[in-house]
Structures are given as structure tokens and as C-alpha cells.
Amino acid sequence: MKVLVIAAHPDLASSRVCRHWLQDLQQQPQVTVHDLAARYPDGALDIAHEQALLLQHDRYVLLFPLYWYSAPALLKHWMDQVLLPGFAYATGGDKLHGKQWVICTSVGSSERAYRAGGYNHFTLDELLRPLQQSVNYTGGIYLPPFSLYRSIVASEDDIARSSARLQQYVLGDFNPVREHDQLVTDSMGALQQRFLQAAALAGAAQ
Q1: Are residues 104 and 204 in the same domain?
Q2: Which residues form the Flavodoxin-like fold domain (predicted)?
Q3: pTM of the entire structure?
Q4: Helices 156-171/17-25 angle, 10° precision
């Protein structure tokens, strides 16, 4: 599987987490790291090049720090310019059907803050819904996001451990349908085992 990492950090030099993540991902032979800010300092995208990159890869990783409960403007600009009708949606726009998308983001607050009743009220999944729906609209497969909370105060060891997990996550064999089917199979097996145990106990009590 060929993986395209689309880095949307506006100032990667100032980043500890995203920069570390990208440096480690660059060591993986099946990964292409594409730093939008570095390639397009003036914001003028080469749309044909961007679309060709998408076609050459199977899984896309959108990597960015969470800005005001969303992605940086750089990523929105890329989506507006690249995911065009006839390519990503509308008539003839089936080029990204079946492609996998993973969001990887660093988050300043704690995970406890991102839930109902927490300081930020909403979960990260809820806040990322616009991106999820954009993936759905292109016929893509939206995979569960990867995140590092408390990124501002994370130690170097914390960041290194998260980077190791990220590489496994990004390169892993995700299949939500298969995982669900396996859960159903395991659940049915567990229920059957409990039924047999209960029947055996009832028989012994007689």
C-alpha cells in the first residue's frame, strides 16, 4: 500500500509534534511526505500535480495541528483547489472512490476536555465531521483518526512514543467492516459458551 502524507502545518519549523511525526514517516519506503507549506509558500497550488499524487497512492494521511477546533486554513485551501468536480465528485468525479483517509492531529488540550460535559463540550470525532463528510462525498473510506492530546506539554519521550504508534497506525491494515464482523463472530461464540456453561450447571444441579 502506498501512503501519501499531506502535511498541513503552516509553520512546521515551530512544531515539535508534527515535525517529529513527519521525520519518522519519511523513513518508511512506502510513504510519500508532501509538505504543502514548503512546496507552496505563496499558496499557488499545482492542481494537476496534486491530483496526480492522489491517484498514485492508496491511503491519504491528513496531518495537522488542531486550529480553532478544525484544520488549518492551508488544508481547506488545498481541498477547495484540488478536490474538483469531474475529479473528486459530480459527473466523472470517481477518481478517489475507495481511497482510504486518515486524519492525524496534535491537540493542545487533554482528551477529557473533548467530550460531553468537558471544557470543549464536543469530542474530536464530532469536530472533525466536516472532513469526514468530505471524504464520504468523494466516495472514500474514512478511517478512525489518530491524535496526540496535551501536545503542548508533551515531553520528548511522549512525542517519540506517539510517533512510533502513528507509524504502526498509518501503515496498518485497517478494515472496519472486517473488524465488526470479527466482533460479531467473537460475541456469538462467547454467548454460546456461556449458554453451554449455564446448561451444564443447571444439569449438575438436578
Answers
A1: no
A2: 1-169
A3: 0.82
A4: 40
